[in-house]
Amino acid sequence: NEVHKLIRMGYIHDETIKKEKYQYIDELVTTINEYNDILALWIKMKQGTLSLSIEVFELNELFELLRKGSRAFEMKQLDLEVEPTDACVKADRALTLFMINTLAENARKYTPKGGKVRIYARQENDFVEISVEDNGCGLSPEALRKNKGNGFGLMNCKGIIEKYKKTNPVFNVCLFNVKSTLGQGSRFYFRLPAGVRKVLTVILLVFSLGM
Fold first, then answer.
1. pTM for the complete prediction?
2. Which contacts of 32-39 are long-range, i.e. CB under 8 A and separated by 24 or more positions?
3. What is the Cα–Cα distance from 179 to 174, expressed in whole angstroms?
4. pLDDT tens digit at each of 211 positions of the chain
5. DSSP per position, 53-102
């Protein structure tokens, strides 16, 4: 075929073809594993067996993991920007990572080559808002209404937030939402309760004992 002719003529190096194949296989396996995890989580939520492991942790720990997983974005020639944050949240660490990663993967799929995906967090008094923003194709108001909760990944994110809100009044601040403009991109975001740093708790304990 034409590819083999180009290889023989020296236009395409055999090693380059092999490298691209390995990259494709690696990405395919990763995608399959992700969909398996998403489906398993969805089944747990439908069965009511999903459990939450609540703790206070620094959000930047998860952001660091996301920075290390930028290869899939680079392969699509996308710019992934993960802004550092000093915010702490009170939530399930694994599920929080799952939600951010799901939204990031969604943005990667619908952002064309040369685009940008930005992950950042903003803290208010009692909650932290985590956003995944892209400059991709965006959604029309009608499509936004229809697709807001479609897809296992987005359904799971919405289900996790609903699970939080049923657990304790402190999670009443939780929400999952999206803002999008056709042709300009989208911002998917969710809110979690703000956490108090452990070091502050220790200082207050020592101070009270001293008093």
1. 0.73
2. 34/101, 34/105, 35/152, 37/98, 38/102, 38/152, 38/153, 38/156, 39/152
3. 17
4. 544 544 444 544 555 555 665 565 555 555 545 545 555 565 565 556 677 889 999 999 999 988 887 888 888 899 999 999 999 999 998 889 889 988 998 899 889 999 999 999 999 989 999 999 999 888 888 877 766 545 667 888 888 899 899 989 999 999 999 999 888 899 999 999 999 876 544 454 444 555 5
5. -EEEEEHHHHHHHHHHTTHHHHHTT-EEEE-----EEEEEHHHHHHHHHH
